[in-house]
Design a protein that fits this description.
By secondary structure, the chain is an alpha/beta fold. It has eight helices and 13 strands.
Length: 306
């Protein structure tokens, strides 16, 4: 860890964008101690990972959009690492959430997905952080983003770095990420896959890679749901929020209609399905070079949360 040169000096950092511009994975200087009052990004060797002038743009106190991960049942499940937990539609239909798998280490299917990642990686809706931790353990430059404080805390505990933020709010390194991940159903974030795909194109470098996990059915659904814990007698529920469920055919059709994407690949592993899309236009929201973030973890990975 490299300390700051003075109490008001920002930590020495290296930009995630440098990886996409030719830097080598795993060769980033560790961040120094956090600047006073800056808690916007945490985790890794030094805690703070925001460059001069960027802390305000990505403050942890920024308004959080409605999302399933904000609800108390979800936070409780992440703290304990156990379900059962469900998404409940307005018609009463229940979708089981795989809390135990999300809170475990990355499995073989996850690892095969991560093998496809290019450059600096942004995991949108990172949850308890198994993918962020696995990439960090490989020496990759990676940042998790989630609206849930419990998710960010657990990601840090298992050795990753994470930012508490909605993906639709300003993020570090916009237009410079080599790969963005939408795993574990997160292609449904916001209930509008078209808007989410457009936002992904703003985050990626031109020619950048989006890997999305789709529903293993031919479905294209927009709905409102609640997180429900039905394991302890009286059901506990979170606030309703918009969500989407979309299968591979519908996602490919949506991407084909947009000028921003071209299909790269689709595959099935076990009972999980994935789509890889690549941007074909330059991002219009890339940050200037002076505004940079380091998100390369130097801390040894913990395999389980305490």
């Amino acid at each position: 860890m490299t300390p700051a040169s003075g109490p008001t000096t920002a930590p020495r950092i290296r930009a995630a964008a440098a990886a996409a511009d030719g830097g080598s994975d795993g060769e980033y200087a560790p961040p120094g101690p956090p600047a006073p009052g800056d808690e916007s990004v945490t985790g890794g060797a030094g805690g703070n990972t925001i460059a001069d002038g960027e802390a305000e743009a990505v403050s942890a106190d920024a308004p959080q959009g409605p999302a399933w991960a904000v609800s108390d049942p979800y936070a409780t499940a992440l703290r304990t690492g156990r379900g059962p937990l469900y998404l409940r539609r307005t018609d009463g239909w229940l979708l089981p959430l795989e809390v135990e798998r999300w809170c475990a280490d990355a499995d073989a299917v996850d690892s095969a997905v991560l093998d496809r990642c290019e450059g600096a990686v942004l995991d949108v809706g990172c949850g308890p952080g198994r993918l962020v931790a696995e990439l960090a353990a490989r020496g990759r430059t990676v940042l998790g983003v989630d609206v849930s404080e419990a998710a960010v805390t657990r990601t840090i505990t298992v050795g990753g770095q994470a930012l508490r933020r909605s993906v639709f709010d300003p993020l570090p390194g916009e237009g410079r990420w080599g790969t963005v991940l939408l795993m574990d159903g997160n292609v449904g974030i916001g209930g509008d896959p078209r808007a989410l795909l457009h936002r992904m194109s703003q985050l990626l470098v031109p020619g950048g890679l989006l890997i999305a996990e789709t529903v293993p059915l031919d479905v294209d659904e927009r709905t409102r749901v609640q997180v429900v814990d039905v394991a302890h007698g009286q059901a506990r529920t979170g606030d309703p929020f918009p969500w989407a469920r979309i299968g591979t055919p519908a996602l490919l059709q949506l991407a084909d209609r947009a000028a921003e994407w071209r299909a790269e690949a689709q595959w099935t592993a076990g009972d999980r399905r994935f789509v890889a899309l690549r941007t074909c236009t330059a991002s219009s929201s890339a940050e200037p070079p002076k505004s940079r973030a380091v998100i390369s973890s130097q801390r040894p990975r913990k395999t389980s949360a305490d």
